[in-house]
Write a structure and sequence with these properties.
- The chain is an alpha/beta fold and 238 residues long.
- It has one domain (4-235): Alpha-Beta Barrel (TIM Barrel), CATH 3.20.20.70.
- 29% of the residues lie in helices and 20% in strands.
- It contains six helices and eight strands, in the order E-E-H-E-H-E-H-E-H-E-H-E-H-E.
- The chain has helices at 51-61, 80-92, 105-111, 138-154, 174-180, 213-227; strands at 4-11, 20-25, 67-71, 95-100, 117-121, 159-166, 189-194, 232-235.
- It has an eight-stranded mixed beta sheet with strand order 1-2-3-4-5-6-7-8.
- 39% of the residues are buried.
- The mean pLDDT is 96.
- The structure holds iron/sulfur cluster.
- Iron/sulfur cluster binds next to loops.
Length: 238
């Protein structure tokens, strides 16, 4: 059963350029210290919204929304999502977005035919993923993120967004960011997102000071200049 455990009826910001209804998956293969969705990390059977209810909620709103967004948790852990996406496209013709950490390229490849937008989080460089609880070694992280990049570079008609939560202990230098950019397609938008130290998973993260908005904007500018990529931005909401 798909562990969808949360529903935001309408969002104007989750799916850029679309009015969307958003569903949240429980379960994740990482444990980022700054995670704001700690309540979603473990699946609680009693919270699961059945598939029929998900479809009924979409149907109810289908005349007023443009898209359906799936967030988490981690969306790519659940094979049944592919069938649900297919049904949403066929029955309602709505656009679909997913958020993912990009570590399951074979799954992401299967979602591409149904997607309009995908947002991939690059957390830090592969050698630091062990600090996020990843059960993969750094070479495997690198291989998987490169495979995801290759799939998304080839995808036609799909808006591809990459982003990094700028948590200073994991993204402490330009050198680190340039290593991470190995995994970001040239054509993708890349957002440096502000870390906010409230409602976070790890007690240590509560004591970490965020980069300021001005620092993030300066970093985005510096990276644009040094990489000659123009779609790199600071994102300071949330
Ligand atoms: S931030 Fe995302 S990837 Fe990290 S633990 Fe939370 S849900 Fe999982």
């Amino acid at each position: 059963m798909l562990p969808v455990v949360g529903h935001q009826q309408t969002s104007l910001i989750d799916f850029p350029g679309r009015i969307a209804t958003v569903f949240f998956f429980a379960g994740c293969d990482l444990r980022c210290p700054y995670c704001h969705n700690a309540s979603l990390l473990e699946v609680k059977k009693e919270d699961i919204i059945p598939r029929e209810k998900i479809l009924a909620e979409i149907e109810k709103r289908s005349k007023f929304i443009d898209g359906v967004s799936f967030s988490g948790g981690e969306t790519t852990l659940y094979e049944e999502l592919i069938g649900l996406m297919k049904e949403i496209r066929e029955r309602f013709g709505l656009d679909i977005k997913i958020d993912s950490n990009g570590l399951r390229p074979e799954f992401i490849e299967k979602t591409v035919p149904y997607l309009s937008h995908i947002a991939i989080d690059i957390k830090t460089s592969p050698d630091m993923y062990s600090k996020l609880g990843a059960k993969l070694d750094k070479e495997e992280v690198r291989t998987r993120l490169l495979a995801t990049k290759e799939i998304l570079e080839k995808a036609q008609g799909l808006r591809v967004e990459y982003r990094t939560t700028m948590y200073p202990p994991l993204v402490e230098s330009y050198e680190r960011i340039y290593k991470m950019m190995e995994f970001i397609p040239e054509n993708a938008e890349y957002y440096l997102q502000r870390f906010v130290n409230t409602s976070v998973l790890s007690p240590e993260a509560k004591n970490v000071t965020s980069y300021t908005i001005e620092q993030l904007e300066r970093m985005a500018l510096e990276i644009r200049r040094n990489t000659r990529r123009d779609k790199i931005f600071a994102r300071t909401y949330a």
